[in-house]
Write a structure and sequence with these properties.
The protein is of the alpha/beta class. It has helices at 18-30, 43-52, 70-78, 97-106, 118-135; strands at 11-14, 37-40, 58-61, 88-92, 110-113. Helices cover 40% and strands 14% of the residues.
């Protein structure tokens, strides 16, 4: 099996906790992941970002955010034909069975509970990077024309 060529797949991180955002950035650096990271801090900013910028290759989504929470934003993204192809990983403090069930029902690709330690976060970012950027095939985030059209 031929190894994949390393390309920069941009990530969009939607999280209102600035300390968590800083830790995620540091965990990516510690994991030696060189992806471009962009941050938004509430669901309204997330949807605005997606309407004004090229699509990211992956969204890390916190559920508990102000203005429009992650659940509402997830539903809008997955109901939008131009955005629904973007893989979304929930990264949240919630461990509620209801949140896990509801987000998968809405179309989330993975649900991860935030670890309590920085080392745990580094391990998760390393695993995410390996899985999403080395193993799986992702769709072109900004196709000129959908192959399904």
């Amino acid at each position: 099996m031929k190894p994949k060529t390393k390309i920069d797949i941009p990530l969009l991180i939607a999280d209102d906790d600035l300390d968590d955002c800083k830790m995620i950035k540091e965990a990516f650096e510690e994991s030696r992941l060189l992806n471009t990271l962009n941050f938004v801090h509430d669901g309204e900013q997330l949807l605005k970002y997606l309407s004004e910028n090229p699509s990211p290759g992956l969204i890390l989504l916190d559920l508990n955010m102000p203005k429009k929470d992650g659940r509402e934003a997830l539903q809008e993204i997955k109901n939008n034909p131009q955005l629904r192809h973007i893989p979304i990983v929930v990264l949240t403090t919630s461990q509620a069975e209801e949140d896990i069930f509801r987000t998968y029902n809405l179309g989330v690709n993975s649900f991860i509970t935030k670890p309590v330690s920085f080392d745990g976060l580094v391990q998760i970012m390393r695993a995410l990077g390996r899985y999403w950027f080395e193993i799986v095939e992702l769709p072109d985030p900004n196709p000129q024309k959908s192959p399904l059209s």
